[in-house]
Amino acid sequence: MSVRVRFAPSPTGYLHVGAARTALFNFMFAKHFAGTFILRSDDTDEARSTEEFQVDILEHMRWLGLDWGEGLEVGGPHGTYRQSDRYERYWAVALSLVDSGHAYYSFATADQLEAFKQEARANGTSPAYDGTLEPERAEVSRRMLDGDGPVIRFRVPRPGSTEFTDLVRDEMVFDHVQVDDFVIMRSNNTPTYHLASTVDDVDFGITHVIRGEDLLSSTPKHILITEAMGAERATYGHLSLLMGPDGKKLSKRHGDTALSAYREAGFLPDAMNNYLALLGWSPGEDETLVALDDMISRFDGTSISRNPAVFDPVKLEWMNGVYIREMSDDAFVAVARPLIEADLGRELEVDEVSDLAALAPAIKERTKLLAEIPDQARFLFVAPETYDDKAWSKVMETPEAPVALGAAVEVLESLAEWTTTAIDGALRSMLETNGLSAGKGFQPIRVAISGSTVSPPLFESIEVLGLDETLKRIERARSLLL
Ligand code: GLU
Question: Phi and psi for 343 in degrees, rounded to 5?
Answer without folding.
Answer: -65, -40
